[in-house]
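Now for one record:
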Amino acid sequence: MGTVIYTQKGSESVATLKTNYLTDLCLIYRESQFYVMQIPSFYKKMASKYFQFQPQEKIIAYLHSSFIAGLDKRGICFTNKGIYWKSRGMKKGKMLWEEFANIQSITIRKEEMICFNDVEKFQVNQNDYSARKLVSLLKKSRNLFALIPMNICVKTIYIRVYPQKN
C-alpha cells in the first residue's frame, strides 16, 4: 500500500514505498465517496477551510457524507492529528488521536448515527458508504493508536526495496 516512488541507482531501479499506518488502514476501506491519498482538491480546500486545520496538519482521508456532491460541508476527515466531522443537523466536531485512542465504545444507532462512548457524534448513510464499514475502520484505527505510539502511526515512512540479485 502507500505510494511507490521509482528511482535509478546506477544501473538498478530502486523502489521506495512512501506510507504510514493510518493511510494503509484507510486504503483498505476506500470506496464510493471515501477518498484516501487522491482526495479531490475541492474537498481538500473545503475541509481545510471549514475545519480550520493547523498549518502542520495533513489530510489523510476524507469521506464526503452527503447525497449532493460538493454543495455542502458534510463529511468526515482523517488528518495526521485527529478526526473531524460534520453531519446534517449537528455541530461540527473533532477529536485528536490521543483522545480517540481512549474511547471505550464505537457503535451505530438507527443504522446511521455513529456514537463514541454512547454519545452521538455524527451521521452517515447520507451517501453510499456503509456505516458498519466506517465503524469497523474507526475501531481498527482506535486499536492501532492504542497499540502503537501516535507519532509512528501517522508519520510518513520510506521503505527502500532493492531488486533481488541472483
Remarks:
- The longest helix spans residues 131-147.
